[in-house]
Specification:
alpha+beta, Lipocalin, 2 domains, two-stranded antiparallel sheet, 17% helix, globular
Length: 293
């Protein structure tokens, strides 16, 4: 908001004109108020809320992760190099036929229809693949009382992270919940870092596009840190001693906040309004995609 100042030189008014001086000062105050009101109205008409320009000024709340974020940095897997596999992990990976491979002992194919990638058959990508992959990498974060939601444009997929102080599921509780494509996630704030633990992952979903597996006992830890008004950095670690000889620690995944104008289509704001749902629906598939492309 632009400030307007009116300077009044005292010598312009003799002492006997005190009433006139007071009247002019009152008028000046009224003008400043009106200019302020007009600037506020223009901000509201532009679709902004008070404080919405904090991004422009560099001010931000490190605990506020709301908004639409786009992946801008980091490897397409947890990291470019995985830890050595255990014998059980290697045997499991040998069954996978990805369209791309980073493991010399893993068969791969350039023909999508020959791959057994579960995602090629319209199954959910699962977690952590939807986070680490760089294809279709927009998601929106909504923070509620006791929960944080990630809405992924791909699959039109909501992911629920509980922030109400509950314990990470384990033992009989985890057995009762059973495995899920995106697991069961619980988060808490450690200073300005959001720490999320996810367990109960469905082992049919691959870790990444390169065919790396995960067992039903796997646990994933994510650490989110908003480093400036427009940037969130994420690091994650896969703990899976059944399949890997060491924890798999990621590189830094960088997400940039999308300006509202970039995700407003035909007057509708959001990832599912005009931009496409990105749902894998067999009824919509082309002949190539029906073969797994």
């Amino acid at each position: 908001m632009q400030a307007y100042r009116v300077y009044i030189q005292p010598k312009m008014f003799p002492a006997k004109s005190q009433t006139m001086r007071n009247l002019l000062i009152a008028l000046t105050s009224a003008l400043v108020f009106l200019f302020s009101l007009a600037a506020f109205a223009q901000t509201r008409q532009a679709g902004q809320q008070p404080g919405a320009n904090s991004t422009a000024t560099g001010q931000f709340d490190p605990h506020d992760l709301t908004g639409i974020w786009r992946r801008r940095g980091g490897d397409r897997s947890i990291s470019a190099k995985a830890p050595p596999l255990t014998p059980e992990g290697a045997a499991r990976m040998a069954k996978n036929i990805p369209a791309r491979s980073r493991n010399a002992n893993t068969p791969s194919t350039d023909v999508p229809s020959e791959s057994n990638d579960p995602a090629f058959a319209c199954n959910p990508k699962g977690f952590p693949r939807i986070l680490v992959d760089t294809a279709h990498d927009w998601h929106e974060v909504i923070q509620l009382n006791g929960r944080l939601l990630q809405l992924w444009q791909e699959e039109r997929r909501p992911r629920e992270i509980w922030m109400d102080g509950r314990a990470v599921p384990s033992g009989e509780n985890l057995d009762n919940l059973g495995p899920a494509w995106y697991g069961h996630s619980v988060g808490h704030w450690d200073g300005d870092t959001l720490v999320v633990q996810t367990v109960g992952l469905d082992d049919r979903a691959w870790v990444d596009v390169f065919g790396y597996p995960k067992s039903a006992d796997a646990r994933v830890e994510e650490r989110y840190k908003r480093v400036d008004a427009n940037t969130v950095e994420v690091q994650l670690t896969l703990f899976d001693p059944k399949y890997y000889t060491a924890p798999w620690v990621s590189d830094t995944k960088t997400f940039k906040k999308e300006p509202r104008r970039n995700v407003t289509f035909f007057g509708w704001y959001g990832l599912f309004s005009g931009a496409g749902e990105l749902i894998c629906a067999p009824m919509n598939a082309s002949p190539v995609n029906k073969k797994g492309g």
